[in-house]
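TA notes, week 10

Several of you asked for a full example with nothing omitted. So below is the full record: structure tokens for the whole chain, then the designed sequence directly under it. When grading your own attempts, check the secondary structure regions first.
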């Protein structure tokens, strides 16, 4: 297909269906992974958000609880679109309205998930490394206002990308490079790479500060260091390979063999499935890592594990 021509739903559906038919077993596997992520992620996130609303009353709680609530909410809204993605992997449905809704959910809620993850890391950074900077901490404690600002900003950045006459749901075709497409890709890469560097910087500084502050309590130190490091590793595993593959996909030209294009598309779709794993791991890393929240969660949903739980200190340096 000539890249100078805007793809139509019919041609995209044909090329997508041809790709899926040739790799039926692989795309059934991708679809199964997405369905599994949807089921497990939705169950975990819904139970966590239930505790935030009815037990912790997050709006009356600490600043970080409001950010955590919005992080979990973003993950739930992202998970809602996964059944459509799973169906897409098998049937290549390109119904225009469904396509745009699914992409809107994917763009805005993945962006919100990453944004709140980043804000939480920045808040912890100033709380641990620079507790004396009261002006910055007072700003960060305006968590309701900051949360609203993040959602509005992401909505503004996402809506223009949905205004194209047609926007693809599958990875098998390349969009014509227009201003809208360029804006969409800039937003995509900005919301992955900049937060990653922020996370790495904040994590390194937090770990250094915790080592200086911790005297004798090695268990608490290692637990806090493990949490901070795990956040960076999960982000790197879920999003960086996906983003780098997207770079390769965008650079593919007409000189590249069709088989090589198909290989990149298959890899991109697989890494896209991996990126959804973030929705499953966020509640574990950010909510269940807190001793207080973990005990509340187990008492509510897994009471049979209570006898096995050992008493832990209620203080959690990395989580406050």
């Amino acid at each position: 297909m000539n890249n100078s021509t805007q793809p139509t739903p019919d041609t995209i559906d044909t090329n997508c269906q041809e790709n899926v038919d040739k790799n039926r077993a692989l795309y059934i596997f991708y679809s199964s992974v997405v369905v599994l992520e949807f089921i497990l992620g939705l169950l975990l996130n819904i139970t966590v958000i239930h505790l935030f609303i009815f037990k912790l009353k997050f709006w009356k709680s600490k600043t970080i609880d409001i950010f955590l609530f919005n992080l979990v909410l973003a993950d739930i809204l992202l998970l809602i679109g996964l059944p459509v993605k799973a169906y897409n992997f098998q049937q290549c449905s390109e119904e225009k309205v469904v396509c745009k809704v699914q992409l809107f959910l994917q763009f805005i809620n993945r962006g919100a998930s990453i944004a709140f993850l980043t804000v939480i890391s920045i808040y912890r950074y100033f709380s641990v490394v620079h507790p004396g900077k009261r002006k910055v901490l007072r700003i960060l404690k305006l968590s309701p206002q900051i949360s609203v600002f993040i959602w509005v900003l992401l909505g503004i950045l996402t809506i223009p990308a949905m205004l194209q006459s047609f926007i693809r749901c599958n990875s098998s075709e390349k969009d014509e490079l227009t201003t809208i497409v360029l804006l969409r890709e800039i937003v995509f890469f900005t919301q992955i790479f900049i937060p990653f560097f922020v996370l790495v910087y904040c994590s390194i500084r937090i770990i250094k500060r915790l080592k200086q502050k911790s005297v004798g309590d090695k268990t608490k130190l290692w637990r806090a260091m493990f949490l901070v490091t795990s956040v960076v590793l999960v982000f790197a595993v879920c999003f960086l390979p996906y983003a780098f593959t997207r770079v390769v996909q965008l650079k593919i030209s007409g000189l590249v063999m069709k088989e090589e294009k198909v290989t990149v598309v298959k890899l991109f779709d697989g890494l896209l499935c991996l990126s959804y794993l973030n929705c499953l791991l966020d509640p574990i890393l950010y909510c269940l890592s807190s001793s207080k929240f973990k005990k509340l969660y187990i008492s509510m949903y897994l009471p049979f594990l209570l006898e096995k739980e050992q008493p832990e200190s209620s203080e959690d340096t990395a989580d406050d």
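The chain has one domain: 9-319. Use that as a sanity check on your answer.
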